[in-house]
Specification:
The longest helix has 27 residues. The protein has five helices and seven strands, in the order E-H-E-E-E-H-E-H-E-H-E-H. It is of the alpha/beta class.
Length: about 200
């Protein structure tokens, strides 16, 4: 299908659109992830880090970071002709967490990005989605020079339930990010099916 017109007499397909959140700590790569995979120019709400924010913005481990997301990132990717994902990157700093409730409204699932150098920074996102029963996948963003640990060790450190998928990824690489997003959709569908079965039995 090209611009809504059918090819070779096929009926146009109305795609299913799904909302996916991308969360995690400050400087973990959320903006990079959305930008690397979005087929449209991503909407970004980044502002420069300033001296005034130094007491509350912990840049240890990401000293080269110069900007921060103050509202959200937004991008879109078509996984199949009939499946489109809308990606909403959440702000990572604690003072902007009040926006998460609004951003999570209607979300199918989420990606929680983790950085092994600052693993504790993703605890809040994991807790948030667990408390609200929003299915999520943990993506360990493999930064250059960061310590590499077995997936099981990271899972144990995050105290994840056995059914929460954990994958290694590179937020800069489109194919790597696509695999993470496919994993979120599959996990969310299985999670929803399990909950439906639990209700009917």
């Amino acid at each position: 299908m090209i611009f809504g017109r059918s090819e070779r007499g096929k009926s146009p397909v109305e795609p299913v659109t799904l909302k996916i959140l991308v969360a995690g700590g400050f400087g973990v790569g959320k903006t990079t992830l959305v930008g690397s995979v979005s087929e449209i120019r991503p909407l970004r709400t980044e502002e420069l880090l300033t001296e005034a924010g130094r007491p509350v913005d912990d840049v240890s481990g990401v000293e080269g970071k110069r900007t921060t997301t103050v509202a959200m990132d937004f991008g879109r990717i078509t996984l199949r002709e009939d499946l489109v994902l809308y990606l909403f990157g959440t702000p990572g700093q604690e003072r902007f967490w009040f926006m998460w409730d609004e951003l999570s409204e209607g979300a199918l699932g989420a990606v929680v990005l983790a950085d092994t150098r600052r693993l504790e920074d993703c605890f809040a996102a994991v807790d948030y989605f667990e408390r609200r029963s929003i299915p999520f996948v943990v993506g360990v963003n493999c930064f250059e020079g960061a310590p590499r640990y077995p997936a099981d060790a990271v899972r144990q450190a995050l105290d994840l339930d056995d059914d929460v998928p954990l994958v290694l990824c590179d937020a800069r690489d489109r194919e790597s990010v696509k695999e993470v997003l496919v994993g979120v959709v599959r996990h969310a569908m299985a999670y929803s099916a399990h909950r439906r079965r639990a209700v009917t039995t």
